C-alpha cells in the first residue's frame, strides 16, 4: 500500500528505523517527481508504484538497496503495514496457506485447471507445449516446467481467425495476473453456449493464453520469497535469492541500454544477450508462429490498419494501461491506434492510460517486441492496489473491472487499429428471448462512443485523442458478423427518435418469419458521425413453433406481510427478476425445470422438477421467509462482547449520526501507520446458511491509502487465527448502509468471528471509520427450525 513521505528534515530521524531492519526487505516510499531518479529506480528495482499525482514512488528494498537509494539523495519512509504484509509473505509458508491469498492458484493448480478445461471441453480447449523453463533444460537441478499455452476456440468453425495472445506472471511475485488470465479462460469456456458474447467470441476468434510465463520463478514466490526473475543460476550466484534474469527485459526488440540493468543481482537484470533465456525464446517463437510479420523492425513504419489480433502482457501493480514504446517518448507508428485501445480498456478498469515510457523507461520488453517485430498491437495492464493484493480486493474490484477490459479487447480483434475509434455496443437484449416462428422480437442496445478514458491527455507532440462523437447509425445482423462478406444487416432506430448524442439507445422489431427452429445470434454494431464502426456485441434469440413454447409466471412475496419482493429467480440456466409488484414471467421450451427464488434478507426457496407443458401456461408463486437474526448491535447499550483494540471505542459525536457508534478514533482523527481492529464475540452458525452482514458506516479516510477492512475467521480459537477479507472502504464521507453476503465457507460454522480493521499510511490523518447498527442474519435449517437468533442484543 503506498504511504506518505517525510520531508527532508526528518532524514536523520528515519535513519535509525531503516538501519534497525537491515536484514529485512522493507516497503518504502520515496517522495520525488524527478524523472531521472525515477528512471534510475526503474533500472534498479523494476517493481515500482509511481503515483504521479502525489509525486511518490513505492518500492521494496533490502539493506543494500536502501543504501543505494540514500546515495541517490532519496528521502525514505518505511511503510509499516505494507512491510508487515511483505514479511508475513516471506515466512516460508506456501501460497495457499497465507491467510487472505487462497484465491490465487499455484503453478500446479493452474495446470490442473488447464487439464480440466481441456478434458471437459475438447471442442473448445486444447493445450500446446511451447517450450521449457530454465530449470527443465538444465540438468542436475529442479525438474522445471513446460510452458503451456491454453488455446481456446470453437474447433468446429474453421479459420483463419483473429488471435489474442495473453501472457501473465512473467514476474513471479505478481500473483493477481495469472489468476485473472485463468478466470478469463474459465469465463470464455464455461459461458460458451449460454452467454452470447462468450459464444460469438469463441466461434470467431482464437485465444492463446500463457497463464504461467515464469513457473520456475513462481514456485520460488510460492515459498514466501518476493521473487521477480527466472531462476538461472549463472547470474548472481547459484544459491542467491537475487539470481536469474528479468524476463521482461530479456526480449530482443531494443534489448539493452537504459531501462534495464547489466548487473546480474539487480531486479531488472536483462541477461547477457537478447533472448538469452529459454522462456523468452519459447514465447518469441510461438508469437511469431501465430501472428504474421506486418512491419519492418524499425520505429517509423506502421502496420496496415487491416492488422488483426492483440498481444497483451499483464503485470501488477500500478493501475495502468500501457502501450508501446517503452524506451522512447516518440509515438509508435501505430501509436494512435494502440492509444485508442488502451483508453477504451482503461474506461472499464478506471486505470491511467499511457505510453509505457510514461511510467519509466524500459527496454527488451514483451509488448515492444510483439509490436516492434510484428506490428500486432502490444499492450500491458498493471493490475491492482498493492504488492500483495488481498483476495477480497481482487474479487470485488481488480477481477471484475479487468475481465470487462479483456472482454472489450476480445471484441476488437478483427480490426484493433480501427474498431476502437468507433462506438461500443452495450446493454444488448432480446425481448422475449424465445419467440414463436413469425413473431417479432424487440432487439435493444446502447451504442456508446463516450466509453473512453481521457485522463491524462496525450503526451506533448502526440496526436489528440478523438472526442466523443455523435452516433450516426446502428444495424442488427442475424447469424453474421457485421464485416462478413455480403452482410447488410437491418437498420435500427434511435429509441428517443433521433441520433443526436454520443450515447444512444437503439431498437429494432426483428421479424423471425424467415428464421429456422433453434437459437440464433443477433449482432449489433454502431457507427459514429466520423463513419467509424465500433466493437459489436451479440444476443441470443431462440425461435420455436408455438406448440413447443411454455409460459411460466407468478409472484414473489414476503411470507409474513405478503408484501411484494424484488427477487431473482433462476429458472434452469436462465435468470429473471420480479418487478416492483413481485411479478415475474418467462418463456421456455416445454419440459422439466428447477427454480430457485431468492431476495436479500430472505431464505432461498427451491422447486425441483417443475413440469412445463408446451403451448400452455404454468403459474408458480413463491412466499419467502425472512432470515433469522444471528447478531445485532445498535451500540446504544453495554458492550455485548466486542474486543476493541485501542483506540477503538464508542462515541456519540460523529457528524451525520445522532446516536452512539463504534469508531476507530473516538478522540479525533486516527493516527498514521495504524493497524487496529474491533472484533466480535464468537458466533455459532451451525445449521445456518446464506448469512448476510449489514451495517451503517461512514469511512472518512484518505482515498486509496487508508482503509476500513471487514474480515471473518472460522478458527478464532487458534493460536494464529486465519482472517479472510470480505469488504474494504476508503473515503466514503457520508453515512450509508452496507450489505455483504458472507462466502459459503463462513456458513454452517460452529465458531465465527467478525472483525472491523482500520489500516493507515503515513499521509493524511482524517476522521476515520464509524460503524453503527451491525446485524448478521442467516437462513438455513436452523433458522427454519427455530426462527430464533443465536445472539441478539439491541443494547437499548
TrEMBL record:
Residues 103-413 form the Peptidase M14 domain. Gene3D superfamilies: Carboxypeptidase-like, regulatory domain, Galactose-binding domain-like, Zn peptidases. Keywords: Carboxypeptidase, Hydrolase, Protease, Signal. GO terms for biological process: proteolysis. InterPro entries: CarboxyPept-like_regulatory, Peptidase_M14. Its cofactor is Zn(2+). Residues 1-20 form the signal peptide. SUPFAM superfamilies: Carboxypeptidase regulatory domain-like, Zn-dependent exopeptidases. The keyword Nucleus does not apply. It comes from the Bacteria. One of its GO terms (cellular component) is extracellular space. The active site is at 382 (proton donor/acceptor). GO terms for molecular function: metallocarboxypeptidase activity; zinc ion binding. Belongs to the peptidase M14 family. This is Carboxypeptidase family protein. It comes from Tahibacter aquaticus.
Amino acid at each position: 500500500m503506498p504511504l506518505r513521505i517525510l520531508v527532508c528534515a526528518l532524514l536523520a530521524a528515519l535513519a535509525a528505523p531503516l538501519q534497525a531492519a537491515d536484514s529485512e526487505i522493507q516497503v518504502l516510499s520515496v517522495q520525488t517527481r524527478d524523472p531521472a531518479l525515477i528512471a534510475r529506480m526503474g533500472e534498479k528495482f523494476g517493481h515500482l508504484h509511481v503515483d504521479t499525482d502525489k509525486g511518490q514512488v513505492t518500492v521494496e528494498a533490502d539493506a543494500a538497496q536502501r543504501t543505494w537509494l540514500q546515495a541517490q539523495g532519496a528521502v525514505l519512509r518505511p511503510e509499516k503495514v505494507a512491510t508487515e504484509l511483505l514479511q508475513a509473505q516471506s515466512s516460508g509458508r506456501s501460497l495457499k496457506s497465507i491467510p487472505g491469498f487462497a484465491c490465487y492458484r499455484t503453478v500446479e493448480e493452474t495446470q490442473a485447471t488447464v487439464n480440466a478445461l481441456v478434458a471437459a471441453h475438447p471442442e473448445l480447449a486444447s493445450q500446446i507445449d511451447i517450450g521449457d523453463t530454465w530449470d527443465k533444460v538444465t540438468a542436475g537441478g529442479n525438474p522445471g516446467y513446460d510452458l503451456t499455452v491454453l488455446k481456446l476456440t470453437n474447433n468446429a468453425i474453421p479459420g483463419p481467425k483473429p488471435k489474442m495472445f495473453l501472457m501473465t506472471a512473467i514476474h513471479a511475485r505478481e500473483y493477481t495476473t495469472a489468476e485473472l488470465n485463468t478466470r478469463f479462460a474459465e469465463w470464455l469456456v464455461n459461458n460458451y453456449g449460454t452467454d452470447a458474447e462468450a459464444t460469438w467470441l469463441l466461434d470467431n476468434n482464437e485465444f492463446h493464453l500463457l497463464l504461467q510465463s515464469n513457473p520456475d520463478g513462481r514456485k520460488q514466490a510460492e515459498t514466501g520469497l518476493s521473487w521477480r526473475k527466472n531462476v538461472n543460476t549463472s547470474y548472481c550466484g547459484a544459491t542467491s535469492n537475487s539470481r536469474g534474469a528479468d524476463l521482461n527485459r530479456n526480449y530482443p526488440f531494443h534489448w539493452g541500454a537504459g531501462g534495464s540493468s547489466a548487473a546480474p543481482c539487480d531486479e531488472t537484470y536483462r541477461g547477457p544477450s537478447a533472448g538469452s533465456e529459454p522462456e523468452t525464446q519459447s514465447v518469441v517463437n510461438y508469437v511469431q508462429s501465430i501472428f504474421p510479420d506486418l512491419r519492418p523492425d524499425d520505429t517509423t513504419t506502421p502496420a496496415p490498419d487491416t492488422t488483426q489480433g492483440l498481444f497483451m502482457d499483464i503485470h501488477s501493480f500500478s493501475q495502468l494501461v500501457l502501450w508501446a514504446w517503452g524506451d522512447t517518448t516518440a509515438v509508435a507508428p501505430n501509436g494512435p491506434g494502440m492509444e485508442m485501445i488502451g483508453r477504451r480498456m482503461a474506461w472499464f478498469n478506471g486505470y491511467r492510460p499511457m505510453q509505457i515510457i510514461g511510467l519509466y523507461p524500459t527496454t527488451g520488453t514483451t509488448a515492444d517486441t510483439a509490436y516492434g517485430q510484428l506490428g500486432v498491437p502490444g499492450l500491458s495492464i498493471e493490475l491492482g492496489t498493492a504488492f500483495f493484493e488481498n483476495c477480497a480486493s481482487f474479487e470485488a474490484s481488480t477481477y471484475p473491472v479487468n475481465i470487462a477490459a479483456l472482454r472489450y479487447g476480445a471484441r476488437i480483434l478483427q480490426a484493433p487499429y480501427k474498431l476502437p475509434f468507433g462506438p461500443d455496443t452495450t446493454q444488448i437484449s432480446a425481448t422475449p428471448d424465445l419467440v414463436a416462428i413469425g413473431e417479432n422480437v424487440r432487439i435493444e442496445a446502447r451504442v456508446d462512443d463516450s466509453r473512453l478514458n481521457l485522463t491524462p491527455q496525450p503526451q506533448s507532440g502526440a496526436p489528440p485523442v478523438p472526442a466523443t462523437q455523435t452516433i450516426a447509425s446502428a444495424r442488427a445482423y442475424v447469424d453474421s458478423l457485421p464485416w462478413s462478406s455480403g452482410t447488410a444487416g437491418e437498420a435500427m432506430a434511435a429509441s428517443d427518435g433521433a441520433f443526436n448524442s454520443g450515447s444512444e439507445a437503439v431498437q429494432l422489431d426483428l421479424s423471425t418469419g424467415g428464421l429456422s427452429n433453434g437459437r440464433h445470434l443477433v449482432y449489433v454494431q454502431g457507427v459514429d458521425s466520423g463513419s467509424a464502426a465500433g466493437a459489436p456485441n451479440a444476443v441470443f434469440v431462440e425461435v420455436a413453433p408455438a406448440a413447443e413454447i411454455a409460459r411460466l409466471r407468478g409472484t414473489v412475496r414476503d411470507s409474513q406481510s405478503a408484501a411484494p419482493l424484488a427477487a431473482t429467480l433462476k429458472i434452469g440456466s436462465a435468470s429473471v427478476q420480479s418487478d416492483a409488484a413481485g411479478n415475474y414471467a418467462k418463456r421456455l421450451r416445454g419440459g422439466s425445470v428447477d427454480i430457485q427464488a431468492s431476495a436479500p434478507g430472505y431464505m432461498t426457496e427451491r422447486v425441483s422438477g417443475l413440469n412445463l407443458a408446451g403451448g400452455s401456461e404454468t403459474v408458480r408463486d413463491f412466499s419467502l421467509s425472512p432470515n433469522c437474526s444471528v447478531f445485532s448491535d445498535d451500540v446504544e447499550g453495554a458492550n455485548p462482547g466486542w474486543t476493541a483494540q485501542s483506540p477503538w471505542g464508542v462515541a456519540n459525536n460523529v457528524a451525520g449520526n445522532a446516536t452512539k457508534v463504534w469508531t476507530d478514533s473516538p478522540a479525533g482523527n486516527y493516527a498514521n501507520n495504524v493497524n487496529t481492529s474491533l472484533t466480535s464475540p464468537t458466533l455459532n452458525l451451525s445449521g445456518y446458511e446464506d448469512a448476510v452482514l449489514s451495517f451503517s458506516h461512514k469511512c472518512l479516510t484518505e482515498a486509496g491509502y487508508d482503509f476500513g477492512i471487514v474480515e471473518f475467521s472460522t478458527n478464532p480459537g487458534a493460536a494464529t487465527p486465519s482472517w479472510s477479507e470480505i469488504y474494504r472502504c476508503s473515503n466514503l464521507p457520508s453515512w450509508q448502509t452496507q450489505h455483504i453476503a458472507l462466502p459459503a465457507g463462513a456458513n454452517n460454522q460452529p465458531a465465527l468471528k467478525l472483525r472491523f480493521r482500520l489500516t493507515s499510511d503515513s499521509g493524511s490523518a482524517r476522521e476515520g471509520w464509524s460503524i453503527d447498527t451491525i446485524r448478521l442474519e442467516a437462513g438455513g435449517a436452523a433458522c427454519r427450525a427455530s426462527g430464533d437468533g443465536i445472539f441478539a442484543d439491541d443494547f437499548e
